[in-house]
């Protein structure tokens, strides 16, 4: 049997007296679409921060395709197949779409932004154009990021994560803040991602979550309180209490 794409065992994070995560266990299969649902402060972003290496856990471990990530710093995790997006925009405002994609691809290979031999430049530049097309920005490759709409930025952020050629992609509320007109395009883009990329996505919107997910993990107060298929989760009493009982912020 192959290793899970993501394996989390006994993961805990404390901030002083606050237990942000309490003994999380989770296993995500290769190719799976897993959505994390939960109230504000449930611990979803903290979990992403630990997986990405932005935060060290107080206890427990995380493995990517069987490889323990504990000793791998955040900046090297792209090289073992991990990419993430953030809730808030993480793009270079004054650069073009193409340059942002190019920088993301170089960063994942451990290269620095700077003069490179022409031979080295051409392949990542071509790749940047391909990545722009994958996220619906083919016509905007030369546009300065500062002029993009909010939705186009979100597309670019996913493009930058894809440029790192991840095996596991963590998407932190990719549709957050989008207008009703912008959301369908972004959801379509997420649905179209190839299955050789395993996806773990934080999403507040239950309808979006259930549309994208193969399985859903519902978090509350640093714990996973429900786990299952979208159909199971929709009728789970704990989830209904959170989403229909007015607890959802
Ligand atoms: N750096 C930190 N220092 C202290 N407490 C923190 C820190 N980061 C997060 N927390 C706390 O940990 C808990 C979990 O926060 P987290 O941001 O992971 O929740 P979340 O589920 O992502 O919520 P949201 O949907 O609002 O982003 C919260 O109580 C939060 O206040």
UniProtKB/TrEMBL annotation:
Keyword ATP-binding in annotation: yes
SMART domains per record: AAA (SM00382)
Residues in ABC transporter domain copies: 6-246
Main function: Involved in beta-(1-->2)glucan export. Transmembrane domains (TMD) form a pore in the inner membrane and the ATP-binding domain (NBD) is responsible for energy generation.
GO biological process: D-alanine transmembrane transport; L-alanine transport; L-isoleucine import across plasma membrane; L-valine import across plasma membrane
Protein name: ABC transporter ATP-binding protein
One of the record's GO cellular component terms: plasma membrane
Keyword Oxidoreductase annotated: no
Keywords: ATP-binding, Nucleotide-binding, Transport
GO molecular function: ATP binding; ATP hydrolysis activity; L-isoleucine transmembrane transporter activity; L-phenylalanine transmembrane transporter activity; L-valine transmembrane transporter activity
Protein's organism: Bradyrhizobium zhengyangense
Signal peptide (UniProt feature, chain positions): none
């Amino acid at each position: 049997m192959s290793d899970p794409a993501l394996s989390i065992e006994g993961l805990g994070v404390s901030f002083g007296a606050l237990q942000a995560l309490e003994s999380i266990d989770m296993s995500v299969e290769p190719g799976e679409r897993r959505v994390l649902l939960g109230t504000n402060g449930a611990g979803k972003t903290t979990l992403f921060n630990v997986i990405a290496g932005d935060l060290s856990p107080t206890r427990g471990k995380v493995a990517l395709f069987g490889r323990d990530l504990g000793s791998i710093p955040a900046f090297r995790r792209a090289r073992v197949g991990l990419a993430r997006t953030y809730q808030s925009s993480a793009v270079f405002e004054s650069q073009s779409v193409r340059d942002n994609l190019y920088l993301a691809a170089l960063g994942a290979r451990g290269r620095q932004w700077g003069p490179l031999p022409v031979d080295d430049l051409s392949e990542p530049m071509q790749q940047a154009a391909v990545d722009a097309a994958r996220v619906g920005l083919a016509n905007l490759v030369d546009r300065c990021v500062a002029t993009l709409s909010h939705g186009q930025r979100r597309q670019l952020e996913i493009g930058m994560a894809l440029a790192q050629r991840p095996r596991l992609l963590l998407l932190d509320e990719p549709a957050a803040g989008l207008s009703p007109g912008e959301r369908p395009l972004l959801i379509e883009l997420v649905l179209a991602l190839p299955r050789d990329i395993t996806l773990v996505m934080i999403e507040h919107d239950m309808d979006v979550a259930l549309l994208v997910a193969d399985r859903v993990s519902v978090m509350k107060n640093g714990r996973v309180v429900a786990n299952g298929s979208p159909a199971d989760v929709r009728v789970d009493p704990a989830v209904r209490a959170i989403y229909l009982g007015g607890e959802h912020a």
